[in-house]
Amino acid sequence: MSEIKIKSFFSILISKIIIKLSKTLFKGGSNFPGRIALKIDKNILSIVSKDYKVVLVTGTNGKTTTTSMIYNMLKNSNKNVITNNTGANLNPGITSCFIDNFRFKELTSDKYAVIEVDEANLKFITEYIDPKIIIVTNLFRDQLDRYGEVYTTLNKILEGIVKVPHSTLLLNGDESLLGDLKVPNKLVYYGFECSPNKNTTVEINADAKFCKNCKTAYSYDFITYNHLGKYYCENCGYKRPELDYFVTSIEELTASSSTVKINNFEYIINQPGVYNVYNALCAVSTAKLLNIEDSVIYNSLKNIESSFGRQESININGKEIKIILVKNPAGYNEALNTVSLDNRKINLCMLLNDNYADGRDVSWIWDVNFESLANLNITNAIIGGNRLYDMGVRLKVAGIDYTKFSMCENYDAVLSNIESSDGEIVYVLATYTAMIDFRKFLHRKKLIQKLW
Q1: Which residues form the active site (predicted)?
Q2: Beta-carbon count within 10 A of 318 CB
């Protein structure tokens, strides 16, 4: 304790007290303690993260699920590991996470931290942490009022990477923006060597359709979704880098799981959708870099549980409710593709908010392929959130039968419609703050036990 400055000691101590009170009284409060700690000692993150082998996970989609997968693989390997599992991925939340797990008496065993980081905040974290691995999952348009276009998001991430040239970068090789990075770091790539579909033509609303070097439209051997896939530029020769870890084949995709081969080894992923195959592939790649045993990796993916709000299943009076976070066109389209794998009679509940954490501009819903819903056996379309009428208009224009709409001004009405709906399952597709608010509402109703 003598090695810690008095200022740092009080920063940690006061924040620990606040964390304890927040958990006891408010069932949360993951950012506020970190803000207080940083006010007392702006360098506190470098103190509390010392001696950890840190894996940072950033990118537009898949951060929380990928972080959870890697964390569980390390935990199942009996490693001493921490993570910010509440999704508090800004500087104060990450600081809170490390302080909460800080012990004045140091442990002698190796310590790991798997930390989800907001793309624009990576540069603040790498100011104080020199991570072992930095993961970038993908880059899609998301919260345009915060990030701007995908090229701006890439630059924000690179601002953080340049501060830690010794960190290994684990990158999605199917993401054209992440190839040919001019950085001194060791680069490791993962991606698909097969296609989940027969598509080779990029959609008109895809995000990064043009060569990052010469601006010619990319050609593709195959596309997995949006602009991800095996790309190449016919004009300048820029193409996807060689992959170190890759999906060899897709054996089965269902509404509840996926079976795939990664580097010719078969895995069962207890999560549906192509985007979760990407998350699992990234987690497997990370585990290999950390020398985790194959059996642990296999069992971790087979038994992985959903992170809150990410394919989370809740039982309400005998009816299955599956909550899926949707926050941009690419993710929403993949969520709809996953729902389409379910052949049962289904109900959809769509909650749209425009709070700061969602992005104030909701025009992105017009880039979502809601027209694909016409092919599904939809019994009811429950619509809520503070922009419910924007969603209602979008669905009506998409050709969905508006007589099936239930417009809900509050969560009591949403819950009432869910409980009275016909069919076995209700898919709740919610933007970030809508997902958080709806889960808090269900917690107050004692319909879910764990808030975070």
Answers
A1: 361
A2: 7
Q: What pLDDT does residue 301 have?
A: 98
Ligand-binding annotation for 408, yes or no, is: no
Q: How far is CA 283 from CA 51, 64, 66, 244, 262, in A?
A: 22, 12, 6, 13, 11
| pLDDT score recorded for residue 1 | 42
Say if residue 211 carries a ligand binding annotation.
yes
Q: Which residues are catalytic?
A: 361
Cβ burial of 420 (10 Å; 0-12, 13-18, 19+) is exposed
Contact partners, residue 136, CB within 8 Å, separation at least 6:
58, 59, 157, 169, 170, 171, 172, 175, 178
Q: Could you give the domains of the chain?
A: 6-302 (3.40.1190.10), 310-444 (3.90.190.20)
* Coil, helix or strand at residue 188: strand
Provide the residue count of the chain. 452
What is this structure's pTM?
0.91
Q: Best-predicted range by mean pLDDT among 14-23, 45-54, 305-314, 370-379?
A: 45-54
CA distance 316 to 293: 38
Check the annotation: does 97 bind a ligand: no
